[in-house]
Write a structure and sequence with these properties.
The complex is a heterodimer. Helices cover about 25% and strands about 25% of the residues of chain A. Chain A is α+β, with helices and mostly antiparallel strands. Chain A folds into 3 domains: about 250 residues, Uridine Diphospho-n-acetylenolpyruvylglucosamine Reductase, domain 3; about 70 residues, Lrp/AsnC effector binding domain/regulation of amino acid metabolism (RAM) domain (Alpha-Beta Plaits, 2-Layer Sandwich), CATH 3.30.70.920; about 70 residues, Alpha-Beta Plaits. In chain A, helix 9 runs antiparallel to helix 10. Chain A is globular, with a radius of gyration of 22 Å. By secondary structure, chain B is an alpha+beta fold. In chain B, about 35% of the residues lie in helices and about 20% in strands. Chain B is built from 16 helices and 19 strands. In chain B, strands 12, 13, 14, 15, 16, 17, 18 and 19 form an 8-stranded antiparallel sheet that branches. In chain B, strand 8 and strand 9 form a beta hairpin. Classes of the chains: A alpha+beta, B alpha+beta. Chains A and B meet through helix 5, strand 8, helix 6, strand 10 and helix 8 of A and strand 9, helix 8, helix 9, helix 11 and helix 16 of B.
Chain lengths: ~400, ~475
Amino acid sequence: MYNERSVVLPASTEEASAVLGEAAGRGVTVVPRGAGLGWHPLDGDVIVDMGRMDQVTEHAAGDLVARIQAGATMGHVARVLAEAGQRLALDVPGGVTVGGMIATGLAGPLRFRYGSPRDLLIGITVVRPDGVVAHSGGKVVKNVAGYDLGKLFAGSHGTLGLITEATFRLHPLPQAVAYLTARAARDDLAAAVIAAANSPLQPSAVELGPDGIVCVLLEGTASGVEERVKRMAELLGSAEVSPVPPSWWGKLPDPVGTVVRVTFWLARLGDVLGAIASAGVPCEVGGSAGAGVLYVCLDSGADVSPLVSAVRAAVGDRGSVVVLTEPPRFDHPLMRAVRDQFDPGHRMGGTGLCRSRTRCERWRTTACTAASACPHARPTSCGVRRWTRRAAGFTWSASSWTVRS
Amino acid sequence: MSGVGNLVPRLIEICGAGNVITDPLELRTYECDGLTSHRATPAIAVLPGTAEETAQIVKACAAANVPFVARGSGTGLSGGALPREDGVLIVMSRMRRILEVDPVSRRAIVEPGVTNLSVSQAVQRYGLFYAPDPSSQVVCSVGGNVAENSGGAHCLKHGFTVHHVTGLEIVTPQGELTWLGDGTGASPADGYDLAGAFVGSEGTLGIATKIMVKLTVSPQQVHTLLAAYATTADGGRAVSDIIAAGILPAAIEMMDALSIEAAEAAVQCGYPEGAGAVLIVELDGPAAEVETELAAVRDICSAAGATEIRAADDPVQRAKIWAGRKSAFAAVGRISHEYIVQDGVVPRTSLSAVLARIAELSAATGIRVANVFHAGDGNLHPLVLYDSAAQEAAAEEVSGAILDACLEHGGSITGEHGVGVDKSRYMPKMFGDQDLDTMQLVRCAFDPASLCNPGKVFPTPRLCGEVPGKRRAPHPTGIEIF
């Protein structure tokens, strides 16, 4: 067993392939890292930091398609695409990397209209845990050739391999936007969200904010939005209209505490909100209610189980309640089968690392990918030794990639 | 064959004698799907009535090591439902119930044999519709749509089947019933998007027995505009300009002179006389937006040199505009005895270059090609026409060369018809060995015994016990695997 702990920053898919091949040869564990904003701490022998693969490699504006390296932040991507009046319609916080967004299946308020990363991802390049580079999809929007590996990597949390590059379908930036904010009593909240979400006024987002605020985003042409705002305001009773979003818009819950994600069929929104209230745990609730996604945040010391069981009962088998601040479980038999095929040793992604309870706990608290709020987080450069060139088959030039030491 | 024959009593026990077909003549009904150039008579055809029966059939096949193939309405165009002569064909057409409609959540749960259009019809009264609309939507099944990730003319704006399927009950290739996805459509926070991977896997990962679909709010207004051009290049310019203006229509379709001629002969659609190309643009959405966009699209179409523009907002007039386009595939039968329906994709900006290449190929070989295409997303459907067996080889060659041209421009060998048996030999042109090998890891996870629709999609089967990275030599091209 090779126990030296390294942070490796590949500059290309080829280098990443060499790194993962080398790690496979040594049988060491590997954790891909984007911006390090993940909700649960992860650790492994080798951290592959995608910070050097941070470019939009190709923007075919006429085709509304862009190929982007996994380490590029969404803020950077938005700036590049906006130059051509376009956007990747996934409004996650700007610091999130493209690879991190795909690996966690993260999406912002626009998910109501445009879906999550899997819906706009049209091609992907990955490095398998054995170092083999694989592609699926392509750079055309319509394509049914072969299996769509992008779907499996969306939500894979690094367990199937390293995402190095992704190609997305883009959309034009809207000419005009309007945010309608309405306040509703708790018993009327669900009805307001449902009315907005199911209206033919084509909202782009229907969000639930703090203190019973419903906020609807309308996008389109200037005259079209003006007219739709009137109709939507009628639907909501009364609403404040603004060209800029409210301060809480699209913010992800702070991972200092415990974060629970609830998904549900829209008809059960009232039941879900009722269940959260009845659990009697102090918490904040918000999210893309119109799309059937809510985040519930609790203080770190709070017992999450009463809330989880109350909400589980409300969503039934049509939805999910997942504690995001714990590692994902991958508990479907077919998920395990897929993982076993890609990574028989379960070396990738930092979950399933528990060799013993104590060690697992220690590793989790010293994790490199821990959110900065974690008091035990080590900086990415800590405790890292130089990766040496001792191993056979170590064929690329060490100068072309960086080892932090 | 005898191994398959031994299954008959068990299948009768599961589904009843009336739903197990062994008569060779009756079995010929199922010898091909919409791609009639590939034929194989199944050893047995069985028509389950429930998910549980389907699971038991698959379990019996798995236990006997007999391959099985699922079939919906049989309208597929790549031979994806081509039976195995040594296997069981599982026909899903008896399972055609709409089990539940939840208009508030905008979800429905349907059985796989239900036809695509009947889902929209069932939810119309709630002001909802099911968005994916393949041309065959009157007869094609939702289960088949799931297998093929079917598109349709309106997928430019509304997306493909994969964007509208939020949960699936499947029978695994081992015969177990399990759910993938919970119907919410939110990407899973604690695992892989198995439902997303299953959609478009062409029946090779299992059989869908219940499908949760997303329903879409019917648009307030729909406008259809037809613009005639002297050449497809002029029409293509209009398409680029519409996209560049930041407008995303529900559909942008184009037909060239030869396909217009065929459509006129078949349905007298009354398109502008002498047009070298017609463009059909459909805009849908809130009334206030559609009106604004329509004015813009009209201006763009004129500026690109339209010789005539017609617009319609009532259903009868819109249907008239669509009649020519929707009849196009069948209509070429009026001008040619035989034809190959091709399905390639190119980046939209390469459309004119690839159309020019097709014209060159046609001129060089004397094989006529009628072009009908989803111009908005670069999905070409060249119809390669030939009249005699003597021309067949040349037509095949042109058809293959068109795919090569698509790939040279960074496109795909199939946009919506699937790989099936028809195009598996082209897969190595689009994907490297390692790409195909990686896709097969998914296959091995679901179907290690390789009994579920074997011989489709991939040119070379993978032995699932193999160490990753080692593969058998590629299958020689041009030889069909049955």
